[in-house]
Design a protein that fits this description.
Blueprint: H1 16-51, E1 62-66, E2 75-79, E3 84-89, E4 92-97, E5 108-110, E6 115-117, E7 124-125, E8 131-133, E9 142-147, E10 153-161
Antiparallel strand pairs: 1-10, 2-3, 3-4, 4-9, 5-6, 6-7, 7-8, 9-10
The structure holds FE2/S2 (inorganic) cluster (FES).
Length: 169
């Protein structure tokens, strides 16, 4: 431990009550500055949070689904990350939502039965989204599908279209 010196008498160490009083003062000063520092940091954090925009960032609603040649005629391809079926029939392409219209479960394509089935309450749909059975109140919606300038499929999940609209390639 270092010696405490009297500022009025340089070179003379303090002892006893005078030394402990300065130590106590130093201690209180440090506590005070520490508390002020914490309060200041808290104020800065709260002010920063107040001025930051309260925005919810959502993933983009349109996505590229690749080259049309990836999809054979008479195929139903489930794109899990987008929860969309890309269906290619002789008449063209359509993009069907994989989210059940009953309570929002993600459906599954059953190739043996050639049906889209919901695992939650048993709704079944044809590959074009038409409801066959179960509690789902509506068919699966179709999303807008088009070709980009470089020839890839582009699906816009924000834009629902009529089921008769197909993309001819
Ligand atoms: S959520 Fe699909 S049938 Fe209920």
């Amino acid at each position: 431990m270092s010696e405490i010196k009297d500022p009025a008498l340089p070179g003379v160490p303090l002892s006893g009550a005078a030394a402990s009083e300065i130590t106590r003062r130093d201690f209180l000063n440090e506590i005070t500055w520490g508390a002020l520092g914490i309060a200041g940091a808290g104020s800065v954090a709260v002010t920063y949070q107040f001025f930051s925009p309260n925005v919810l960032f959502e993933p983009p609603t349109s996505f590229r689904a690749g080259n049309p040649d990836l999809y054979p005629v008479h195929s139903v391809t489930f794109l899990q990350d987008q929860q969309v079926y890309i269906v290619r029939m002789p008449e063209g392409f359509y993009a069907v939502s994989a989210v059940c219209t009953h309570l929002g479960c993600v459906t599954q394509w059953k190739p043996d039965a050639e049906m889209i089935a919901c695992p939650c309450h048993g709704s079944k749909f044809k590959s074009d989204g038409t409801k066959v059975e179960g509690p789902a109140p509506r068919p699966l919606p179709h999303f807008a599908i088009s070709l980009t300038s470089d020839g890839e499929l582009l699906v816009d999940k924000l834009q629902e279209i009529k089921s008769e609209q197909v993309l001819k390639v």
